[in-house]
From TrEMBL:
Hydrolysis of 6-phosphogluconolactone to 6-phosphogluconate. Its EC number is 3.1.1.31. It comes from Saccharothrix coeruleofusca. Signal peptide: none annotated. Pathway: Carbohydrate degradation; pentose phosphate pathway; D-ribulose 5-phosphate from D-glucose 6-phosphate (oxidative stage): step 2/3. Transmembrane segments: none annotated. Residues 4-233 form the Glucosamine/galactosamine-6-phosphate isomerase domain. This is 6-phosphogluconolactonase. InterPro entries: 6-phosphogluconolactonase_DevB, 6PGL, Glc/Gal-6P_isomerase, NagB/RpiA_transferase-like. Pfam families: Glucosamine_iso. It is an enzyme of class 3 (hydrolase).
Amino acid sequence: MHRDGDLLAAAAAARLVTRLVDAQAARGSASLVLTGGRTGIAVLEHLRATPARDAVDWGRVDLYWGDERFLPSGHAERNETQARRALLDHVPVDPARVHVMAPSDGPFGDDPEAAADAYADELAAAARPEDHGSVPTFDVCLLGVGEEGHVASVFPSSPAVYEAERSVVAVRNCPKPPPIRVSLTLPAIRRSREVWLMTTGAAKAAAVSMALTGAGEVQLPAAGATGQRRTLWLLDSAAAAKVPELFTPPLA
Ligand SMILES: O=C1O[C@H](COP(=O)(O)O)[C@@H](O)[C@H](O)[C@H]1O
């Protein structure tokens, strides 16, 4: 737990440098799933600002998105646009390793189902035999958490939260604008070695507490976002306010 959102973002950025460097040392490359939202983008801004970012070989990082708002390319509300402005335009990424979800004016036109299927194919093409399936094992999956407990664009009691087969789905009638999105599913998120759930502010406190104390993933998708090796909650004190003491170490 961190005193405020800015400290949380700085700490998460520092952790991420270490994690990516370690993954590259162990496997030659690292894979990272990016999130949209205030905290997720703040982490990327901190990453841009820290000199330690140069310890990462950005040309050997595979970048994916947990979800995307289905809007035209370059739209200010696209998670991709925000991530590029915050970080990706400032570090030497390999464009072939930046796996964006298609925009609404892209190769699939205004068809989010086709965009989702294409992203699932892209994930399947990146998976290796040791991944045992059609999704690569991501080193770190970053996720924001919505007030009602959504992660990526998997919303409570929505069709996406029941998806057990597909790795990527189109999301329609999304309760948070914009209404059409493309999202990884919970089974795809759970292919990550580490899932980091990051959120700030009192409005998130109830969702965080419920996710940590036994809520089901249909009612609270954040509860179903777990990593194979580690599930890390990065919170500020306001978002952690309702979490039982048992779960909260002293302030960092
Ligand atoms: O719309 C979205 O919202 C969530 C959470 O955003 P926040 O601003 O409340 O942190 C985010 O995780 C997701 O990627 C994004 O598309």
